[in-house]
Structures are given as C-alpha cells and as structure tokens.
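I am still getting used to backbone structure tokens and would like to learn alongside you. Label the sequence line and the structure token line clearly, so we can match residues to local backbone shapes. Go ahead whenever you are ready, and we will take it from there:
>
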Amino acid sequence: MKKTFGTFVSLLIILNFSAIGQNIKEFKSLLGECGMNVNIPEGFIEAKIIENGDMNYEYAIKYPDKEFELRYAIRPIRYKKYANDTVKNEMEGQRPFRNSSYGTILQTIVLNITGGVDYEIRAFDKNAVKKEFNADWGATTFVELKSDFGKGYKYCMIVTIHKDDVADAYYFYLSNTKENFSKNEGPLFHTLRFD
C-alpha cells in the first residue's frame, strides 16, 4: 500500500508540475535547463494557457486562422542547476521511477484528459525516436477529450518523448475534427527535441 500511495503522489506531482508561465523566452529557458530545445515555424501565434486540474502545460501555439492548437508540457527529470539541495534531492529521488514509468505516466495523463477512458498507446520504433527526437522512448495516442483540459476541443493526439535522466515531454495537438490532424500537425511534429 505504501508503494502504491507513493506512486500516486509522484504521478500527481508530475501531472500538475508547472514551472513557468506562457512566454516563449521563459519556455526556452525551461527547455535549456533540462536539455531540450524548440523550433517553432513562422506563422504560429501563442495560445492562452487554460488553467485546469487535469493536465498543466507550459506553452501553447496555434494557427492564427484555423481551429488547431498545440500544447507543450515538459516534466524535467533532472536540471542542469538546482535552486537548492532540497529540490535536488527531491528530483534525484524520483529518477528511478521516472526512468522506468514513462508509459504508466502517459496512461495516467490519458485517463485524466478523457474522463477515465483508456486508449491504446503505440510506442515509436526505438531507432526512429532516437533519430527524430534524440529520445530513448516515444509513443502516440489519439483520444476524445472529456475534461477541463480539453474544453473547447473534441479530439487530441498526444505525442510523448522521454530521455533517460533528462525529461519527459508531451505534445498535445487539439482540434474539433479528425480531418484537421492530417492537414495541420505536419509542420509541428518535430518542433521539440532533446539536445
């Protein structure tokens, strides 16, 4: 029971972690601190962050003239520098769990944003995810949203990438029609990667 409760508490902390607000400069700073970078193509605008209890995220962009949004959530496993020893000890203590439970964490996120509905999660080919994102693991799933996180949108495609001892990163593509995904996610698919 202790282990289950500890795992539950760790998952809640991870899901609701939010280090910094909506601002590209601060978002890039967060990414730099945990060994990542972002390259957003021209023509996209910042989208307002929606406060919710289901899944916090640090940055969002959208097309100025289309109903299609991308939200980024970053969950560092380690930082290059720590504010103090307490923060360092907490982060370091979670490393073994975070380096082995990325699939379980993704499944928990899916349950949170779909109102408890479980969906199939498909892992990427290990060589492809290494080449395309410099990650150790990655996966994707397509869900119907039923939560405050998805308010205003019906569907979400989630792409997750994980790098051992660095971070987990989540792309949340949101739209109200399934057809919008194949038309609009292409230019945004590789915008985030590990150094």
